[in-house]
From TrEMBL:
Stretches assigned to the RNA-binding S4 domain: 243-303
PANTHER family tied to this protein: MITOCHONDRIAL TRANSCRIPTION RESCUE FACTOR 1
Protein's name according to its UniProt entry: RNA-binding S4 domain-containing protein
UniProt keyword terms in alphabetical order: RNA-binding, Signal
GO MF annotation: an example: RNA binding
InterPro entries: Nucleotide-bd_a/b_plait_sf, PSII_S4, RqcP2_RBD, S4_RNA-bd, S4_RNA-bd_sf
Organism this protein belongs to: Rubus argutus
Domain of life assignment: Eukaryota
Amino acid sequence: MAATSFVAASLLRRAALGFALSHPLKNNKLSYQSNLISFPLTPRLTSSGLCHLAQAVKGDVADLLKDVGDKTVFEEVKRTLEMARRASSRREVLHTNFLTPPVMKESMLALTKLADLKAVSQGGYPQAERCRISVGHPDVLTSDPDIIAALSITGNFGFQPCSHGDFLGAILGTGIAREKVGDVILQGEKGAQVIIVPELIDFLMTSLDKVGNVPVSLTKIPLISIDYEPPSTKSFRTIEASARIDAIASAGFKISRSKLVDLIRNGDVRLNWTPVTKNGATLKTGDIVSVRGKGRLKIGEINTTRKGKFAIELIRYL
Ligand SMILES: *[C@@H]1O[C@H](CO)[C@@H](O)[C@H](O)[C@H]1NC(C)=O
């Protein structure tokens, strides 16, 4: 029974994969994040009749980024916005390399504020962490660009298990830059699957012959064959007097409030991948809290009770 439902879920997941990248699914079984944002064509016309996103973006970049606290994230998001400006003024579709989750989140957020621009993010499978963003005018960005490829790395890892870091280290050891590589998905004794930019497939296939001490062989695989485990989650409800991060995260991870405050002080707590520096942050639906060594927590629905408390749905990634 369990096996059957697993197969069914996996078929569903694969069937969904084909369109999951462009169609937000709100079903709880297939709760993929929406990976597509698109904006109505607002008539931002100049006297010549041309759409001027370039003008709209120029000078506003600093404004769009005023909430991005982290310096490196800020620089990378800025680069994405500048790319969007170029894409729009040349009426082309341009793509980023693979972005980290915080950069990707802030970039998509900032891009939604721009008129006449469509942005698509893809990482090869619905829950991909590292994604590439493509931007362009909605007239030219009409389908998901073909800018993601996948390889299967196989070898006999039964006696020498290799970690995520071992695979990544071996790939980067060939000279490939980190931002050209997406997620690495471990496949137990068989090896791993790696997401990469298409133009480096041949190079990696000829350059990588070992991971750790294990000889490997590489094959290109279609994205539909990417075999990831949908994360195992547990959701529950809690009622708290405040929606502050210390209150909610201590309930979610079942640790004391004071321990959580210590973890924050040590820099071990992240909110939407950005380290939390002070305790007062208030959480909202969709926020992701991660605590080093304890995993992740997603904030679901928040209701206020008649007594002015917060009833919060928490989804714990195990
Ligand atoms: C919030 O309220 C709705 C409607 O009453 C209810 O269905 C839902 O379960 C509540 N969620 C939480 C987390 O209490």
